[in-house]
């Protein structure tokens, strides 16, 4: 069973992604990256990416993360903060600790593409 399936599939990943962005928007240290962004679209894109990355049935067809984040100036500390918001969203959804750790490990694989400062 894939991590995507263990987490509950697309609906569960989308719900976690929605909470993830609510957490980010409440945090002044990282919310500025999303000023002027349509958050419904952003949530859908991120949920689609996560579904694919977690072993879901659909391949990621969106933009390359390195290109998207190239000029954003995201620091390691900010990425770590965002990972904390993901962990918190997963915890709030009642996801088991081992699945949270596995999901965070998958998210960590893109640190090098997202951190540009």
TrEMBL record:
UniProt cross-references to CDD domains, sorted A to Z: TrHb1_N
Superkingdom of the source species: Eukaryota
PROSITE patterns: GLOBIN_FAM_2 (PS01213)
Keyword set, alphabetical order: Heme, Iron, Metal-binding, Oxygen transport, Transport
GO biological process: oxygen transport
Pfam families referenced in this protein's UniProt entry, alphabetically: Bac_globin
Cofactor: heme
GO terms, molecular function: metal ion binding; oxygen binding
Family affiliation: Belongs to the truncated hemoglobin family. Group I subfamily.
Name this polypeptide is given: Group 1 truncated hemoglobin
